[in-house]
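tool_call: predict_structure(chain=1)
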Amino acid sequence: MLAYLIATSLLIPANLWAAITPHLHSEVSMRILHGLSTLALLPLLWQLWVRRKQDLLVFSLVLAVFLLVMVVVNSWITFMGMGVRFGWLDHIFLAIACSSVIAYFFAEPSLSEGR
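tool_result:
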């Protein structure tokens, strides 16, 4: 779990850098960044589904919809490539999504209980 959270935290500055410098990366690096960011969001989506009865319903629903949209959009970008209008905004949202992954798993009570 710790390695996953460290990898996810490294995606935050990478996405912010991609948002600031949208034309300084190659097609391959962009597909890799979008693909890795998408993979980082999947465990949180799974946990939101598994714990849907235990967590705050409204918060979980909003977060799940946001993450689901990010997974769909970024999967499309991963397979179709660059050329997305307002792509810099997508990177800002990816940084926010990766931050929410870290915040969720650090705030999760089962991690602090050692379960």
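agent: Residues 52 and 92 are 27 Å apart (CA to CA). Proceeding to next step.
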